[in-house]
Here is the input.
Amino acid sequence: MNKLTPADLYSLEEYARIRPEFRTKIMEHKKLRRVSIGEHATLYFEDSLLMQYQVQEMLRIERIFEQQGIQDELDVYNPLIPDGMNWKATFMLEYQDVEERRRALADLIGVEKALWVQVEGFPRVHPIANEDLDRETEDKTSSVHFVRFELTPEMVNAAKQGAQISAGIDHPAYQETTVIEQAVRESLVGDLH
Here is the structure.
């Protein structure tokens, strides 16, 4: 995946004009980037289109139009774009009830290390998690983690040739596995080269 440059972005005026249609496109695209793992865990896989949306929204909200400000936003979001040999995702633990969430986050310390993806026929790949900062204390884990799954060339080739892709969590307090549905699988394979 190519990193975003200023040439990939709309001006503030153009973005204001096309924003409703662009947001609709993004909401549809996000459906192809979401993988639920059981009832309370979700992977939201990032890509260049989603990062373009994030940058455009930040520029709009902050009214940023100067070159350095635009580059600063690109520098923040470009690292979240997969590079062709990996998948990058936001991993969220979602509990509606506040008390249930508090208990679960205390029980789920280390869950990001127990997370995995697997291309059929290959070992599970555990993520490199939270490269930006530590998101866990001795008392609890965070409800949001940023993860990167590094794949081998053989895994990439197998995925591109149609191998099933699964995701799961193997933690004492949360054990779930899901096979990634075809439309989402195709979107994720599009990240690979």
Observations:
- The CA atoms of residues 5 and 74 lie 7 Å apart.
- Helices lie at 12-31, 48-62, 67-77, 98-107, 111-114, 153-160, 182-189.
